[in-house]
Amino acid sequence: MADPKTVKENQEEKPLTAAVAIPQPSPETETPTAPSKLPDLLDSQRQYAQEVAHLNQLKQAIVSRVNQTLTSQIQSHPLRASLTKALSSPSTQQALTDSIFQQLLVSKGSLTETTLKAIEQAAQHSLGAQFLSHHLKNLYDPLQTSLQPLNTDASLKPLVQSLETGSFAKLQTQALSGLGIKDQLTIALQTQARYSQADATTHSQKILDIVKLHTLTHPNLVTGQNLKPYLQGIFQAAGINPVAAAQIAYNLPDPLAQTLLDHANLALAQSLTNIPQLSTLNPHDPTQTNYTKNLYAWLSRKGYNVNTFFNQLKTQASQPSAQTTLTKHQAARLQTTSQYQPGFNLRGLIYRFREALFPRQKTLNLHDFLKATDLIPEFTSETETSLLRQILASPRSAISSWLRSQLGNITSKISIQSSRFFSSLIPKLTSFLRPALGALTKGGTALLGKLGVGGGGLLALVGAKVLIIAAAAVLIALAVILLVYLIQIQPQSAAQIHPVGPVADVAFTPDFAGCTQEKQPLDPATKPSNPIAARAWEITSDLYQGFWCFWNRSPGDFPTDTTTYLPNYPDLFNENLFATNPNPPRRLVETSASNLFWCTQLVVKAYQETGGNLPRVVYLSSTMQADFTAARRFIPAANITPQNAAIGSVIFFRVESGPPRTNHVAIIANVSSDAVVFIQSNAPTKTGSLSFNDSGQGLQNLPGIIVEGIGLP
Amino acid sequence: MKSKLILIFSLIILIFILILVRFFVSKPPTPTVKSTVPANNAELILDNTPLTITFANPLSSNQQAQTTVTAEPSATFQLTWPSPDQLLVTPTNFFTKDTRYTITISFDQNSIHSFSFTTNFYSSLELEEQGREQIADDLIFGQTWTEFIKQNPWYKSLPIETKTYRIIYDFEKKSFRIRLLITPSPTERQTIVQQALNDLEKIGVNLKETSYTVLEPTPSP
Question: Chain B interface, mutation test: which of A509, A586, A674, A699, most B Cβ atoms within 10 Å?
Answer without folding.
Answer: A674
